[in-house]
Amino acid sequence: MTQSEMTHAMPPFDDEPLDTVHKAIIFEDVAISFEGPPVLDGVSFELKRGETKIIFGVAGSGKSTMLKLCLGLLKPDRGHIYVLGHDVTVMSEKELFDLRSKVGIVFQESALFDSLNVCDNVAFRLMEEHLPEAEVDQRVREALSFVELGDAIDRFPAELSGGMRRRVGIARAIITHPEVLLYDSPTGGLDPITSTTIIELIMKQRDVYKTSALLVSHRLQDGFTLAGHFYDPVTKHMKPTNGMPAREILTRFMILRDGKVIFEGTAAELGAVEDPYIREYIS
Amino acid sequence: MELNSPFEFVKRSVLIVQEYAGLSFSALANIFRKPFYMADTIQQADLIGVGSLPIVVLTGMFTGIVLALNTSKTLESFGSLSLTGQLVSFSMVRELGPVLTSLMVAGRNASGMASELGSMKVTEQIDAMRALGTDPSKKLVTPRVVSTVFMMFFLTIISDLVGLVGGWIISASMLGLDSYQYWNSAYQVLKYNDVITGLAKPVVFGFIIATVGCFYGINTKGGTHCVGRSTTQAVVASSVLILAVDAVLTQLFINLR
Asked: What CATH number labels A3-282?
């Protein structure tokens, strides 16, 4: 670790070094507003390594903003955000470019580059790093094979369906084998069958590569499917956990309301919560 | 429509100028920083330069024709019809060539850049580019600025030449002027300072076109309907800025004579 990295890894007001071995993302009293009331107001939470945290909340509750904050695409008005031990709130754009190679993001509408075909979209980061063409080609094929879209390699985004675009978005995010993945409403606007396919891919990434992930969603069903199933590499399909606790612990839930975290816990804890707002939300 | 206080308006205007200056500075500074996007620069040069050739040729030609037609009546009344070549040459090289070419390129390319980058912004493609570890200023802005500046230089030379040809066609076919006399007077009237003025202006105008187009594109906020607004603003702002800077540059080069 360099001197600069050591500096970023140090918490601002605490003498204890941050536990970046077991925690991939730490939010400390984060607040942000855009010409109006605060979108996030004093949000604090931690994402453990290998854990998938599903963030729920009504539209405009700041879910997508949290993901952009993690990548340093937005700067908070207050608080600190540590991603893989680096405080992204004090890092320059140039320093962030290096960190972002360890963090993948799948945008809400995929955000694929219109002018590039699927191959070039997925290979974008590798080509920017000027890796050998043969290696780029091999890794693109691997990533597309992971999302079961090997046949679409030469197509342009305009020729793909919504579900295929999301899958290309996932392939683009995982091609560098990131340590953290951020999913922004990956099933938004998709039909139930395609949504299940996408959730299965996220589950595969979680269970096969043990990648830490923040997942923003409107669909409770997605969260409970992720919490209650695991990916079976033999059958290549998801299977119910049947209450195996070790698997459930890897997937936790968080609910945002008016810029604050009002719930954080497992699927079982969410089911047992008494708060009337949360009960109405999950009903 | 929302009414803002004058203080708010001034604050917002200063912020826009500051952001524009920041983008322009980083576009220039990126030329000296790795990585260099040569393929993107060449592609943009093709789109901007070769793509703008037809309108630049037509504009230059008709401007030369109109200059010769309009001035011939006045010159004839003074018995100085032979000066048509001088007048067309001086006007085209010093002023009309650079300005009209820039306005044409601004209409075509500043709008194109604003709409392309604006669409990328509202569909989160620019955020995706940043998230993938690429600086959009290096990848998108600098290639456009470099190629526009480079191509404007050559487009203006072509426009000047075609304008002179337009003036010659009218002089020879309708005014009965000798071709040699036309071209000789057109050549003789030009001083070193005129040529420098005529070639320095498009470089500055090219920079304005690209930076303004990219600035409005990258700062597009809201949905796709805002892309149209950014496009209009880019054309208006770049056109006005070209004319305003032209006035300043003209005075500057006159002082240097």
From this structure: 3.40.50.300
Structure tokens at B155: 């487009």
Burial of residue A73, with CB atoms counted within 10 A of its CB: 0-12 exposed, 13-18 middle, 19 or more buried: buried
Inspect the interface and report whether the beta carbons of B127 and A73 lie closer than 8 Å.
Answer: yes
The torsion angles phi and psi of B249, rounded to 5 degrees, stand at -65, -40
Cβ within 8 Å of residue A161, ≥6 positions away: A194
Distance (Å, whole) CA A206 – CA A247? 11
Distances (CA, A) of B205 to A105, A222, B238, B242: 39, 53, 9, 6
Q: How confident is the model at residue B2 (pLDDT cuts 50, 70, 90)?
A: low
What secondary structure does DSSP assign to B81-147, as a single string? GGGHHHHHHHHIIIIIHHHHHHHHHIIIIIHHHHHHHHHHHHTTHHHHHHHTT--HIIIIIHHHHHH
Q: Which residues of B touch A73 (CB under 8 A)?
A: 127, 130-131
Model ipTM value: 0.83
- Predicted confidence at residue A247, as pLDDT, reads 55
Cα–chain center distance at A18: 21
CB B65 within 8 A of CB B167: yes
B71-118 tens-digit pLDDT:
888 888 888 888 889 999 999 999 999 999 999 999 999 999 999 999
CA distance B28 to B214: 13
Partner-chain contact A114 B128, CB within 8 Å: no
Strand spans (E) along A84-154: 86-87, 103-106
Min Cα distance A240 → chain B (Å) is 34
Q: What percent of chain B has pLDDT over 90?
A: 77
Q: Where are the domains of chain A?
A: 3-282
Cβ within 8 Å, pair A172-B135? no
User: Quick check: B220 pLDDT over 70?
Assistant: yes
* A145: CB partners within 8 A, 6+ apart: none
Distances (CA, A) of A61 to A120, A259, B122: 34, 6, 20
Bond prior to B35 in cis (omega within 30° of 0): yes
Three-class secondary structure of residue A86 per DSSP: strand
* 10-residue stretch averages of pLDDT, chain A, 283 residues long: 41 56 88 88 90 89 91 92 91 88 89 93 91 92 88 91 90 91 88 86 87 90 87 84 66 90 87 83 77
**What distance in Å separates residue A58's CA from the closest CA in chain B?**
20
A131 in reach of chain B (CB within 8 A): no
